[in-house]
Amino acid sequence: MRERPLAPPRADSSDRRRLRLLLPPALEIEAGHELDEGAAQRLGLRQVVNIAVLTAQRAAHACSDPIMKALMQRLWEHSVGCAIGAKWIAEHANCREFASEAFMAGLLHDVGSLMLLRVLEGLRADQPGQPMPESLMLEVVTALHAEQGAALIRHWALPESYAEMASSHHALEFDSTDTVGMLVRLADQACHKIGMSLTPDPSIRLSTLPECSALRVKEIALAELEIAIEDGVSALA
Ligand SMILES: [Fe+2]
Ligand SMILES: [Fe+2]
User: Fold this and answer.
1) Considering the domain 66-236, what is its CATH architecture?
2) To 10 degrees, the CA torsion angle through 57, 182, 171, 118?
3) What spacing in Å lies between the alpha carbon of 36 and ligand 1's midpoint?
4) Which of 59, 117, 120, 229 is the most exposed place for a label (fewest CB within 10 A)?
5) Three-state secondary-structure class, residue 236
6) d(C-alpha 56, C-alpha 108), whole Å
7) pTM of the entire predicted model
């Protein structure tokens, strides 16, 4: 039995430092290089923000601890896969106008997992003599990431819709008028199904999911979705 159970993360000074690593910077594509105004207008602000957050999130998943590095890589691929998948479904399910927002929501929906892995990474570094099994880490992440992710998104003052997405994406019930929410939930399940996840589940049948019928996604499109996610992630991740 563990003598010291893992508590929900508290922001001590080192955690605050880690949290700063996760903050989306102001439209920076690479450290020290901001987009000029003309480039931002040509791309469209939403796309620029998506690129900026994608870049920041990629940097935030960097890690030197080999065990944590492998988990971070899986989480990064999952988040990118979910972003790509949610956008792809929007573009193929007659709701193209939500594509950009769905991409961002997909990228951020599991940001609580990233924060918790960072906190666990710090605990492992502080207590090198006390091994922390991967199963325990995944248990902590699974139990706490939705709530912690929503809190982090609110701390960043990002739109409340992203916080609600992070908070509710594993809820059994969902709002069938929330198109972005359904896009992310379906893409999330697709990523779990194809193994692009911290907790893969190949038994998932996408065609039976209520989000699939609510979005009127045809069964043939689901196979294309899986390929689009895999191709997109190998290009981006
Ligand atoms: Fe999740
Ligand atoms: Fe997820």
Assistant:
1) Orthogonal Bundle (1.10)
2) 0
3) 35
4) 59
5) helix
6) 11
7) 0.79
- pLDDT per position as a tens digit, 113-127: 999 998 998 888 888
Please give the pLDDT value at position 170.
97
173 C-alpha to center of ligand 1: Å? 15
Report CA-CA distances (Å) from 205 to 94, 197, 199: 22, 16, 16
Q: Is 33 helix (H, G, I), strand (E, B) or coil?
A: strand
Q: Where are the alpha helices (DSSP H) in the chain?
A: 13-22, 37-43, 45-60, 66-92, 99-108, 111-126, 134-155, 160-168, 179-193, 210-214, 219-236
Distance (angstroms) between ligand 1 centre and the Cα of 170 equals 6
- Distance from the CA of 3 to the center of ligand 1, in angstroms? 28
Ligand nearest to the CA of 144: 1
Tokens (6 digits) for 66: 């080999």
Sequence ranges of the domains in the chain: 66-236
CB-proximal residues (5 Å) to ion ligand 1: 110
Q: How far is the CA of 119 from the centre of ligand 2 (A)?
A: 19
The residue written with tokens 């479904």 in the block is 89
